[in-house]
C-alpha cells in the first residue's frame, strides 16, 4: 500500500487535478497531472476506475490494486522521472485495461510516468 503522505484523498483534489486538463493515455490507463509544484512536498497520487468501466466491484478494485502496486514499486525504485514536478496525479483505468496482466499494466504506468510533461 502507498504511504499515507502520497495518497490523494478528497474529492476537491481530484476535481482540481482533472480541471488542469493535462493528460496522456497508454495501454488502457489515463494519467491526469495537476499543477506544477512550487515547494518540495510529495506528489499525491489517486487511482480511479469508474463504475461505467465494469459493474463488478471486484474487477474495478483489482485494476486499482494493480495500478497502485505498479506506482508503489516505481516509488520504491525512485524511478518516477518528471512526474515529481506535479502536485497531484490521477490514474484512471479504462475498459481496455481490465483483462490485462500486472506486467502490461506496469509497462503502461512506467511509460506514462516517464513521459508526463
What's this, in brief?
By secondary structure, the protein is α+β, with helices and mostly antiparallel strands.
How does this model look, in words?
This protein has 117 residues and is an alpha+beta fold. It is built from 3 helices and 4 strands. The chain has a single domain (4-115), classed as 2-Layer Sandwich (Ribosomal Protein S5, domain 2). 38% of the residues lie in helices and 19% in strands. 27% of the residues are buried.
Quick check: average pLDDT? 92
CATH architecture call = 2-Layer Sandwich
Q: Tell me the β content.
A: 15-25%
Computed over alpha carbons, the radius of gyration is 13 Å
- Category by helix and strand content: alpha+beta
Contiguous runs where pLDDT drops below 50 for at least 5 residues: none
- Largest sheet, if any? 4 strands, mixed
Number of helices: 3
- How many individual β-strands? 4
Sum up the overall morphology in one term: globular
Order of helices and strands: HEEEHEH
Order of neighbouring strands in the sheet with most strands: 1-2-4-3
Q: How many distinct folded domains? A: 1
Give a quick set of tags describing it.
alpha+beta, single chain, globular, 117 residues, 4-stranded mixed β-sheet, Ribosomal Protein S5, domain 2
Could you give the topology of this structure?
Blueprint lengths: L10 H9 L2 E5 L2 E5 L10 E6 L7 H21 L10 E6 L8 H14 L2
Parallel strand pairs: 3-4
Antiparallel strand pairs: 1-2, 2-4
Amino acid at each position: 500500500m502507498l504511504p499515507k503522505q502520497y495518497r490523494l484523498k478528497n474529492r476537491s483534489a481530484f476535481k482540481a487535478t482533472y480541471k488542469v486538463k493535462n493528460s496522456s493515455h497508454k495501454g488502457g490507463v489515463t494519467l491526469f497531472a495537476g499543477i506544477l509544484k512550487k515547494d518540495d512536498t510529495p506528489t499525491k497520487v489517486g487511482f480511479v476506475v469508474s463504475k461505467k468501466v465494469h459493474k463488478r466491484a471486484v474487477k474495478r478494485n483489482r485494476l486499482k490494486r494493480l495500478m497502485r502496486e505498479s506506482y508503489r514499486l516505481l516509488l520504491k525504485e525512485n524511478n518516477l522521472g518528471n512526474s515529481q514536478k506535479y502536485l497531484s496525479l490521477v490514474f484512471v483505468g479504462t475498459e481496455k485495461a481490465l483483462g490485462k496482466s500486472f506486467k502490461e499494466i506496469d509497462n503502461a504506468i512506467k511509460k506514462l510516468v516517464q513521459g508526463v510533461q
